[in-house]
Amino acid sequence: MRSPAGIGGPPVAVIDLGSNSIRLVVYERLARAPLPRFNERRFCGLGRELEATGRLAAEAIGPALRTLRRYTWLARATGCERVEILATAAVRRAEDGTAFVRAVEDATGERVSVLSGEDEARIAGLGVRCGFHEPRGFVGDLGGGSIELARLGPAEAPVEGVSLPIGALAVGEALRRDRARAEALIEATLRGFPELRGADRGQVLYLVGGSWRSIGRAHMALADTPLKVVHGLALPPAETVRLCRELAALDARGRARLPGVSRRRLDLLPAGALLLERVVRLLEPEQVVFSATGLREGRLFEWLEPAVRAQDPLLAGCADFGARDGRTAAIGPALAEWTAPLFTGEEAAAARLRTAVCLVSDTAWREHPESRARDAFFTLAHYPLLGVDHAERAFLAYALFCRYEGRRDDPAVARIVGLLDKVQKRRAEALGAALDLGFRLSGGVAPVLAACRLVREGGALRLEVDHPAVDPEDDAIKGRLETLVAALGLDRGEIRVPRPA
Known about the structure:
Layout: E1 12-17, E2 21-27, E3 36-43, H1 50-53, H2 58-77, E4 82-87, H3 89-93, H4 97-108, E5 112-114, H5 117-131, E6 137-142, E7 147-152, E8 160-164, H6 168-177, H7 179-190, E9 204-208, H8 210-223, E10 234-235, H9 237-248, H10 252-256, H11 269-283, E11 287-290, H12 295-303, H13 306-309, H14 313-325, H15 331-339, H16 348-359, H17 372-382, H18 390-403, H19 414-417, H20 422-442, H21 446-450, E12 452-457, E13 460-465, H22 475-488, E14 492-496
Helix pairs in contact: 2-4, 5-12, 6-7, 6-11, 7-11, 8-11, 9-11, 14-16, 15-16, 16-18, 17-18, 18-20, 20-22
């Protein structure tokens, strides 16, 4: 199941020219699950004086132009055939924004796309659609100069959004003077959008933007979560509000002691927290989920063909990972088909995860046998996969750990495996045992696997072998079949060879 574009294709780059920072991300190629190969950010603060003067910060223009020259040169030198600069709130609102755009285009030789607020909201929404499997609800993207809110409906429905003219920079400046002033500024802005009250009730609020992701990272550090991956981190609204109140109340000394947050994000963290609390209260979501994908990935998503956009991001990413790092791309899909009879009546969500594990099941073959299981576990647990939450990451990693015969009581993996309930844990162990057997039978050669059927009947598991490359008397095959039978909770297993005609 490889992406239509395959593994090849040139890298592409998007430069996000924001009110507070400028970021370059070079992606390995244009794909359904884009993989960053270079990521750099510089805080320039172009919009920090916008509310007071209506213009870009004069002392930030020089550093911004130098940064953009560097970024565009690096992108082209990396081999990018497509480079886009996206300018957001500060540039579109500033009196001297048009002149600045001309200076950027003269300095870089690249065209600048100045996004309207509605376009920024729409593209951020597409970024969440890029990063999640069938997302529904609202997307909130906090920038230095504005908040974009977009509604996500069915996959084929257009994404529509609105831009709120308030961001982390203005609220941060107000907070430095007086908290009551900052709260009044937020409330005055939100009163202008009464249609948003309760608009996300019963659904998910996906959070985009560096300041809001910092809140997610702060939570992971303070709660010492087993996984320190912000994408897919989910919190109840009440917990989000409590966390935001705690972070907004921190003074400079308290923020400096806060783990998990970039030093350059600390000053604006209280502003981001104050804004997030009010947005959660306004929209009333059922769940709050942090997203690592946003505006930049949304632009890439727009460039994809409709058939590629329709792919599942997890399966597309795992197919690419498996094809790139495995010994053969064919074995993953073959294993997905081969293991299906073991899990009769499985729901679509479970089949999706099983297929994902099969697609990456040969990616650790280069690792040393003594450390292979652990290496595979931690690589997959932290790999930049899209379309998964923390528990699903744990399932994928643990199943792969078991495929490489990792010890079930290994303390190194225990905390992350603890995200799984008993049923999920047993299922991952059974899938891992099946994959271990499959590789022993086939040597990773898909046509061999096709001649070795698994048949589950009542409390028995039968392995039907009909290929000259498989020795049914191999003790290693018998041992792995016994392990699989035990993992499935069955009574017995047998190997059957067809009689000669």
